[in-house]
From TrEMBL:
Tree of life domain: Bacteria
Cellular component terms per the entry's GO annotation: membrane
Subcellular location, record wording: Membrane
Transmembrane segments: 20-42, 62-87, 114-140, 160-177, 184-208, 241-265
Membrane disposition: Multi-pass membrane protein
Domain ABC-2 type transporter transmembrane span(s) in chain numbering: 57-261
Record protein name field: ABC transporter permease
Organismal lineage: Bacteria, Bacillati, Actinomycetota, Actinomycetes, Propionibacteriales
Organism: Nocardioides panacis
Any Pfam family matching the protein: ABC2_membrane_3
Length: 270
């Protein structure tokens, strides 16, 4: 297992896309928080500052690029591409044979890939959140806007959990299809288009509208609830889902995909 982890750690550090994608995630996340914090600062020092009621949760928004308010957490999407390439490059360039020859154990190779890519994306997401909070504090600490609060740290923890599950789901799907192009397309198409279309259909079609609440169980609809704060989400599997229920739905799908990918990884030819 130690050899597999060392092998995978070396591999992920020698792929240029790992650094490019990580840098893009940090720059995008911190840049967005910087711009919003700057705009908010100038609004607060203007002649007509926004009321305090409109600032509720802004600290969590800065830390999560406003995913806490239901906006897609695009940092996780970018980092999930690192996970896709973790398997995709192996199959695209035929390196999976060399990997299995060097390691011998398929289980060790599989576990190492998920552990290393999981650790990488969590660290990058954490750096993004902390740097975002720092720029938020630099702009807003003199305006009476608290930034480093207990609610913020809870939001950051939920964000890291969502990012990890998203990356593992992307890894598992890529291992299943063994095609990084297909995995990349579905990575963006399913959560940003397919699930939204399904939700719209349930809302507009009279025969389905009374069952529209079932769309809360769509995997990425549920996944966003891990981060976002929605009033009235107190019941476990009610509408909207609670954070715990969202973890069960999104995490359950991830676990099933990972288990299936491991099974097929053992049964298929390299």
């Amino acid at each position: 297992m130690t050899a597999a982890l060392a092998y995978e750690w070396t591999r992920i550090r020698t792929i240029r896309s790992t650094y490019w994608l990580s840098a893009i995630a940090v720059v995008f996340g911190v840049g967005l928080s910087f711009l919003v914090s700057m705009g908010l600062h100038f609004s607060l020092v203007s002649a007509n500052p926004p009321p305090a009621s409109e600032l509720k949760g802004v600290d969590q928004g800065i830390a999560t690029q406003f995913a806490v308010f239901g906006v897609p957490y695009f940092v996780a999407y970018i980092l999930a591409m690192v996970a896709v390439f973790g398997w995709g490059h192996e199959y695209r360039h035929g390196m999976i044979r060399a990997t299995l020859t060097a390691l011998g154990s398929r289980t060790a190779a599989w576990v190492a890939k998920f552990l290393v890519v999981g650790a990488w994306v969590v660290v990058v997401a954490l750096v993004t959140a902390l740097a975002s909070l720092l720029v938020g504090w630099l702009w807003l600490h003199g305006d009476g806007v608290p930034v480093f609060t207990a609610d913020v740290w809870r939001a950051v923890a939920r964000t890291l959990l969502y990012t990890l599950l998203f990356a593992w789901l992307a890894s598992a799907f890529t291992a299943l299809v063994r095609n990084q192009t297909a995995a990349l397309v579905l990575l963006f198409l399913w959560p940003l288009a397919v699930e939204n279309v399904v939700s719209v259909v349930f809302s507009l079609v009279p025969a389905l509208s009374e069952h529209a609440e079932v769309t809360r169980f769509l995997p990425f609809n549920a996944g966003t609830r891990i981060i976002s704060q929605v009033p009235g989400a107190d019941g476990a599997f009610g509408s909207p889902l609670s954070v715990g229920a969202a973890v069960v739905v999104f995490g359950g799908l991830t676990a099933v995909a990972m288990a299936l990918s491991l099974t097929l990884f053992h049964r298929r030819d390299a």
